[in-house]
Amino acid sequence: MAKVLSQDYHEQVKLQNIQKLRELEAKLPGFCTTFFRGISVRSGSRTCIAYAYDLIVFFTYVTNYILTDPDLPINKLGLDVLDKITRMDLENYIDYLSLYTSDDGVTHSNDEHGKARKLSAVRGLYNYFYEAELIKTNPASIVRSPKIHEKNIIRLDPGEVAKLLDIVEAGSDQESRHQGNYHRITKVRDMAMLTLLLGTGIRVSECVGLNMSDVDFDNCSIRVVRKGGNEAVVYFGNEVEDALRDYLEQRKEIIPLSGHEKALFLSMQNRRISVRAVENLVKKYASQVTTLKKITPHKLRSTYGTNLYKESGDIYLVASVLGHKDVNTTKRHYADMNEEAKRAARNMVKLRKE
Questions:
Q1: CATH 3.20.190.10 fits 158-335, yes or no
Q2: Model pTM score
């Protein structure tokens, strides 16, 4: 993929996503480009990219197992192929997703979440062209989605949060000399990032996208760009403020590479830090706190959401702070999290008056 040069991080990401989608569209049937253009008004570029990857899997299955012509390039398929696919074909496809080997020899598996997501891409494609009256059938509309078993939210307990920040601040006895030297260089930055993630619940993409000018100490707030490109103001507390101030004192002494002058958080190469780098440092520190939980930046977001709900009991506040467009998303994740309240409820209802 060609490199996109842009001073504005979010504009750069947008252009990179456009390029990536075009690369994927070239591998897909031509009518998929029409589909992506049609849904772009309500779906973000990352959603379209995810759909494109899933549709490549689907149409590869179509040529191999429905049309039984594995030599037929999927980008040569016409729109009429959708009317050749039956409900049973789609049900067989869902079963196929349990375990399959792609053309590059890599074996893949999907649980019910993965199957539901891939079916969603196919269903969206069918719905779009069926509503436009460009196809006659819509078998995807009558295929049942896999039953989703809700997973427990993985998050850090209060003691684990404290231990995590202690390790970031003081280092670990398990570090080698090289790791210790590296930690001394990065600990102020790492402390600021992890305290910010744990203290505001922002997404990792929102964190790496922050510019120096997005921090407002007068109002103890940051300006973030949410999914979909909307801006939002997120407020932070004293612990986050202290960590950010410490880091900004250090940040003033760093000379960023050209094109990265605006970035708040910098890598060791003095570039804007990447999502992958933040994921790796969260994994590094969290692995020293717990080996039973797979902690990612999103799990730090879940930790914040859980704690905020426990403290406030206000699901609408949690939804607003986390930037959820639909409060039902928040309810599914956090409304059942208050174990203390549920335990306390056991004595609230009296069967007989004392």
A1: no
A2: 0.81
